[in-house]
Design a protein that fits this description.
This protein has about 120 residues and is mainly alpha-helical. The protein folds into two domains: about 5-40, no CATH class; about 75-115. Helices cover about 50% and strands about 0% of the residues. It is built from four helices and no strands. The longest helix has 21 residues, at about 75-95. The protein starts with a helix and ends with a helix. The mean pLDDT is about 80.
């Protein structure tokens, strides 16, 4: 065998292996000695697929399951943002560029968005 032949064999032998499925599925197949094909395919055959519109939900079926959205930390965000805008306004006043209306407008917009979502 020539050196080139040996190199080609080693390229095949040590090439990175490509898995047909995810690493977890491959390990699960090895651990459970599953003989089937992976990755599992949960799609239905064509003759089993439902035709037509999906069923309408029954009235009150989701009542009590879907709650109101909670915004956690909104007060802290508003407080930090107000501190930031105040600091920027002070810097703008100190260095002669006193267009602070844009900052006030941005703060009011964010405050309105956060308070509207409660």
């Amino acid at each position: 065998m020539t050196r080139n032949d040996a190199v080609q064999i080693m390229k095949l032998k040590f090439a990175p292996r490509k898995l047909s499925a995810s690493r977890e599925e491959t390990l699960a197949k090895f651990g459970t000695r599953y003989k089937g094909k992976i990755p599992l395919d949960w799609k239905r055959d064509g003759n089993l697929v439902r035709r037509g519109k999906p069923n309408k939900p029954r009235k009150g079926s989701s009542r009590g399951k879907i709650g109101r959205t909670k915004v956690i930390g909104a007060k802290k965000v508003l407080k930090d943002f107000k501190l930031l805008t105040n600091t920027l306004q002070d810097l703008m006043r100190k260095h002669g560029r006193s267009d602070t209306k844009a900052l006030q407008k941005a703060y009011k917009a964010i405050r309105a968005q956060v308070s509207a979502s409660k």
